[in-house]
Every structure is written in C-alpha cells, then in structure tokens.
Amino acid sequence: MDNLNGAKPHFVLVPLLAQGHMIPMVDMARLLASRGATVSFVTTPVNAARIKPVIDGASDAGLPIRFVEFKLPCEEAGVPEGCESFDLLPSVDFYKPLFEAIIMLREPLKLYLEQAKPRASCMVTDYCNWWTSEVARELNIARLVFHGPSCFYLLSSRNIHRSKVYERVADEHECVVVPGLPQRIEITRAQAPGWLADWKEMQGRVMEAEEAAAGVLINTFQELESEHIALYIESTKKMVLPIGPLSLYNKDAKSKATRGDKPSVEEHQILRWLDSMGPRSVLFVSFGSLVKMRPLQLIEVGCALEASGRPFVWVIKEAEKCAEVEKWMSEGFEERTRARSLVITGWAPQVVILSHRAVGGFMTHCGWNSILEAISSGVPMITWPHFADQFLNERLVVEVLRIGVGVGIKIPVFHPEEDRVEVERGAIESAIASLMDGGEEGDERRTRARELGEKACKAMAEGGSSYGNMTLLIQFAMEQAHNGIAD
C-alpha cells in the first residue's frame, strides 16, 4: 500500500453497464484502493449482485471501496426490468434504450458527488459515458476517460476518422490501408466502421467529451504497444497512462474465479480436470459475453473440436444451448469426446482457465479483455472476430504481435438473423492444428506469447511501467485535492 501523504484522493469510477467494460474497472477500483485511495464505484442492483463475491472480498480485505448502487430507470427508458447490462438484453433492439436509461443516472450521480465526503478528487468514466463530462464540468471535478480497447484500436480508429479514408471507397468490403501506423494494416469499413457508427449524435457527444477530458487511461501496457501509445499521445496531446493488464491484479484463485459473474461450474472442478491434462495440451474456446452463435455455427465448432483430437474446454452460453444443439451433443458428441472435453454452459472463470499450465491455446472473439488475459498468461490465440474493435484487435494479434492464427472470417456478424455457417469446420480444424502444432512457426509463436506474458507481469509489479503509471494517476488526483478542486 502506498504511503499517501497529505490529502487522500477519492476516485469515482463510472463504468458502462456491460460486462466487458465493468470487469476491468472493478479491477481498477480494487487496485486503487489497495494503494491507499478511496474509491466510489457506481453500479446498479443487478450488476452489484453479479459481483457480490468481489464486493464481499473487498469488504473483508478492508479496502476503502464504496459500491454505490443507483436504481436504473428501466421502465422509463423502455428496457425490460432486470436487464441492467447489455449482455442481459433479449435483443439488440434494446441497446439504445439501455444507453438512454444509463444517461438518466446523471442526476443521481450529481447528487451523490455533491454530498460525497471526502469530495471527489477525480472521476474516471467509461468513454461511452459522455454525459459524465457535463457533471464533472458543473461540479469542477477532474475527469479522465477510461478506454477498455487496445491502443492500437484507438489510434487506428482515430486516424481512420480524421483522414476520412473510408469516404474514398464505395464498397464497404474493399480494403483500405489504415493511415499513420508503423505497420501496413488493411481493414474494410464493414470490419471496423467505428464504435457507435450507427448513432452519429451519440458518437459526436462521446468524441466531444473525450476532447474535454483531462487525460486518458488505457487497459494495456507500455511494452506491448509502445509505438502505438507514443503516436496516440502525439495525436491527442493528452496525458495518456497505460495501466494494465488490470486482470493481473487478481493473483489468487478465488479472486480470479469471481471476476464478472458467478461461475456455472465450481472452480475446483475445473482445476481438477485441467490438472489431469498435459502441459499446454488444452484448447480453451470462449467467445465473450455478447457474441451469440446460432445453432448451425455452434455445431460446426463442436465438430471441429471433435475432429482435432485435442483436449478442450468449451464455453457455451445459456442462450446458445437450444434444443437443436442439445440434441446434437447427446447423439454422440458428448460420449465420443468425454475423456478429453469439459463443456461449460454459462459463465466460466476465464482467467483461472487461461492461467493454468495445461492450456496451450485460446479460441477467442478478440475482445480486448480476453486478448489481454491470454497475453498475461502467455497463451497464443485463434482469432475469430465478430464486430466493434475485434477485427482491428485481430490485426494486432496476428500481424503485429504475431501470436495468433485467424480462422479466416471476413464479414462481421453481430447477432445473425439466419441460422447459417460463417466458418466451416475444416477451416476451424485447420486453425486449431496450426496453433497447437504449427512446427517451427508454432514454436516461435508460443515463445513470443510467453515473453509477452512475462513482460505483462513485470509491468504490473512494483517498479514496472503500469505500476509507475498508476502512481502518476494517484499523484494527479492528489494534486487536484491539494489545488482546491477537491476538499
């Protein structure tokens, strides 16, 4: 714990209500509190219930974190009651209403900040929560933006937007070169249209709020993206602090297992199964909290896993395991793969699994949290992007860092209406063989992944780059208090 002389900083963290956005900010809250800062973490009743073990653990450890629960106005915004996170919504039709419900938290947040003791030194808010910029300005509180995605994605998106490169191509599937990068990276408008591209007004507000922010925090580390971080700082002219991988705050098995939600299978059962497998022999397959595969594609994945002959852990969402999938699994798949498979329906403790010595590869949707967790464990990846930042993250993993193999997906798929196969079993099986075997190329890929994992751990340890940046963050907040912006 840091010895904080003088005013003790009070951080107020306002995440977006989405699992991939909340999880790293919960880690940030605990990390700040462990270093002596007071933290208020804004959430809602349903989301607080999902992270109850984390809340209880913070309380037991005596960490100065207040989990502040605001009632989300679901009914007023037209959101189904209890659907307080994007992964809980029954369809994408409710995405915009949920955003509108979150914006309605403006007044409760302002009231909390007006009454908070000690007064907030600094707000750290998800970049999507543009409305917090207005609150910060009205109450004269310094505001920092937190970005969950990679700096490579942030820089690429910024350069694409500013150069208007997409305006020079008529076909959304035509490749363009991303301007201003150290490497030649090609992408299509369909693969990387820009977050919130369909909601121009909101996109504009998000960008304005970021320009007004005092600085930017990114869940990455200097040694992973040094060139891109330098270019991003040059472009934004802001204080930019890489403070990750935040997942590495979780060092013991219990804290790893309780990140995000209650696991569907007990941690000790998973560990016992993994303990029975050889080192680096298991492929872990999981596609995040939002991606929902249709039955035909899910079955195609299962067929490829069976044909690969390798041990695997496969996470299937409750919403994916329909009667058709269950029928297919019961008609031989379960029996034929029983000796080498662990199928988890629901939420899985991903960091627990990735950090186990038996795991040698990870098939992922390329969400940045998942990529960072794999990198932190030194695990190479099979990349299967679907939407948002994921295609650019794939380019970073496969083409820049060279620690991944793509399945060959070209067309983004968010929530497919049709039950069709986007990637056939042969391509999936080929990617598995390339990653898990791969000869000399595979050995080099595994070596690079392992070296990055070691660098990630050093970055978060005392004396490391991210540790130092967290110190700078705490000093920044203390200066706000000292200068009278906070009491």
From TrEMBL:
Gene3D superfamilies: Glycogen Phosphorylase B. It comes from the Eukaryota. Keywords: Glycosyltransferase, Transferase. GO terms for molecular function: UDP-glucosyltransferase activity. Transmembrane segments: none annotated. Residues 12-246 form the Glycosyltransferase N-terminal domain. Its EC number is 2.4.1.-. InterPro entries: Glyco_transf_N, UDP_glucos_trans, UDP_glycos_trans_CS. PANTHER family: GLYCOSYLTRANSFERASE. Belongs to the UDP-glycosyltransferase family. This is Glycosyltransferase. The lineage of its organism: Eukaryota, Viridiplantae, Streptophyta, Embryophyta, Tracheophyta.
